[in-house]
Amino acid sequence: MFRLLSVLVVSLMFCARPSAAEFSSYAVLQDDASLVIQNRVVRLFGIYIPDPGQFCDTQLRPAFCGNRAATALNFKIQGFVTCQEMGTYDDGSISAVCWTRRSKSDLGAYLIRQGLALAGPDAPFEYQALERIAQNNGLGVWGFQADQF
Q1: Phi, psi of 69 (to 5 degrees)
Q2: Pick from 44, 57, 30: nearest CA to 98
Q3: What DSSP assignment string belongs to 51-111?
Q4: What does the pLDDT look like over 65-107, one tens digit per residue?
Q5: C-alpha–C-alpha distance, residues 59 and 37, integer Å
Q6: What is the pTM of this model?
Q7: Using alpha carbons only, how large is the chain's radius of gyration in Å?
């Protein structure tokens, strides 16, 4: 019995996947709402960002232009982020859940809550619930687009 238990424990150790890497650094936001962290492109895990066109935030100097999600992230991040790697894409970019050091808020959840991103098929349940709330409240992509004809 002891031998069987030992074999089972050892086999479980080999089958267990290592935890995803966590990294933290200064983030440079790209106009497509991806982040460049430590010279790696990072895309937020579990979200899809629709491209409703370019938007410029002229309150910043120099002005920041990108889609609305990128502009919101630029305001929210303001420097350092911490990310938990979830996987990689074919183009070499990283899929990760990221949050700010200051507020500890999940950036993907923030965008969905504002209606600026949609929950992807692999998104956690929380993201799906936040998307429904944003949709019911008519926020972001779910609301009236006054600047489009």
Answers
A1: -65, -45
A2: 44
A3: ----EEETTSSS-EEE-HHHHHHHHHHSSEEEEEEEEE-TTS-EEEEEEETTT--BHHHHH
A4: 457 888 888 888 877 899 999 999 999 999 999 999 877 889 9
A5: 24
A6: 0.74
A7: 19
